[in-house]
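Q&A FORM
Asked by: J.P.
Topic: structure of C2H2-type domain-containing protein

PROVIDED:
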Amino acid sequence: RAPSTHSQTGASPPEEFSPRGSRAFKRGDPPMNTEGKYICNFSDDCFGQTFERKCEWSKHMDKHDRPYRCPHPSCAKLQGFTYSGGLLRHEREVHGKHGGPKAQLVCPFTDCKRHSGKGFTRKENLNEHLRRVHNGKEATSQQDSML
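REPLIED BY: S.T.
REPLY: Here is the structure written out as tokens.
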């Protein structure tokens, strides 16, 4: 592969729609308590929670910081994602990246508006729909095989 001409010319690389989001920022060293445990210093109900390992603290802090952000201009105001998989799913379902959205899952109840037209991209969303809208009614075994 030929070296990039961007580094040779000093020009900035063109803005790309990243296939793999990255953290929006680099987190500093975690605070530690007197016992040498990592602590959450975010001002909410988990303030002071301790973690044995730095990786545990870092994963916890992702919930507060939501570091994985969509680089697409139409998503500038969108809150970030807590993990990279959430960003990848967003890019696939909203922007058609990474092979585009998965096949739509439709409601098995033929009298439901979600039976034809707009279905669901995630099985858990269909199951939640069945629970809420159809009072948890089970689909038939033939319909289950479509899930």
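FOLLOW-UP: The mean pLDDT is 76.
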